[in-house]
Design brief:
mainly alpha; 2 strands; globular; 9 helices; two-stranded antiparallel sheet
Length: 226
C-alpha cells in the first residue's frame, strides 16, 4: 500500500500543476487580501480560494479507491469552512485551520522534495520554490489564527477584524521580516512562532538560491569535462 507521501509525489510529478497553484496563491496574496472587503462577498471569495487550494490535490486521489480516507482529509476542511457560513463555532474554525495547516505541510513537503532533487534547473523548480515560500506564510497564518481563537484579542496588538486575511498579512510581513509594527504578537506562543517564521523567511531563500547555484555549477562542470 502506497503511503500518503508517495501518492502526493505521483500527483505533483506533473509539473503543470505548478502553473495552476502558483497563480491561485499569488491572486490570494496580492489581489484578494488588499482589495476585497471583509463582508459576505469577501467571505465567499476566500472560501473559493481555500477550495481551489485544497482541491488541487484531490483529482489524483479520487482515482484510487484506496485513497478514500486520504481524500476525506482534503474534503473535511472544505466542509468545515463551508459550515462557517452557518455557524460561528470557535471549535469549528480551529479544526478547519488545523486541517488546512496539515494540508500545507503535506503539499509543501512534496514540492520542496521535487525542488531540491531535480537534476536540471527549470522554470518549474523556481515555481516550486515560490509556492513553498507562500505555503509557509499561509501555514503560519493559520497557526496565528488558532492562537487568536484560543486566547482572543490580547494575543495580538493592533488587530482590526481578527479574520484570516488579517493574519495572512501579518504572517507575510513576519516571513519577509518587513516588520511594519502595525500588528505585533503579545502572547509568548505567538511571539515564538513569529520568530520562527522570520528565521525561516531568511534561511529559505538563501538555501534555495545556494542549491540552484550549486546545481548549475555542477552541471556546467560536467559539461566542460565531457
Amino acid at each position: 500500500m502506497e503511503t500518503f507521501t508517495n501518492r502526493l509525489k505521483k500527483y505533483w510529478g506533473d509539473r503543470r500543476r505548478y502553473n495552476f497553484l502558483l497563480p491561485v496563491l499569488a491572486i490570494y496574496f496580492f489581489v484578494m487580501m488588499p482589495l476585497v472587503n471583509f463582508g459576505f462577498l469577501g467571505q465567499i471569495l476566500f472560501f473559493v480560494f481555500y477550495f481551489l487550494l485544497l482541491s488541487s490535490g484531490a483529482p489524483y486521489l479520487i482515482k484510487h479507491k484506496k485513497s478514500f480516507i486520504l481524500f476525506l482529509l482534503l474534503l473535511v476542511p472544505v466542509v468545515l469552512l463551508f459550515s462557517e457560513f452557518f455557524s460561528r463555532s470557535t471549535a469549528l474554525k480551529i479544526c478547519a485551520d488545523l486541517f488546512m495547516a496539515f494540508y500545507c505541510i503535506s503539499l509543501g513537503t512534496i514540492i520542496l522534495i521535487r525542488t531540491f532533487t531535480q537534476k536540471n534547473i527549470t522554470i518549474y523548480r523556481v515555481q516550486g520554490g515560490l509556492i513553498v515560500y507562500m505555503l509557509v506564510s499561509f501555514f503560519f497564518s493559520l497557526l496565528y489564527h488558532v492562537i487568536f481563537l484560543i486566547y482572543g484579542m490580547p494575543a495580538f496588538h493592533g488587530l482590526v477584524t481578527g479574520l484570516r486575511p488579517e493574519f495572512m498579512y501579518f504572517s507575510f510581513s513576519a516571513l519577509t521580516t518587513a516588520g511594519y509594527g502595525d500588528i505585533t504578537p503579545v502572547s509568548s506562543i505567538a511571539r515564538s512562532l513569529s520568530n520562527l517564521e522570520s528565521l525561516t523567511g531568511q534561511l529559505f531563500p538563501s538555501i534555495l538560491i545556494a542549491r540552484l547555484v550549486s546545481l548549475q555549477f555542477s552541471k556546467s562542470t560536467n559539461q566542460s569535462t565531457t
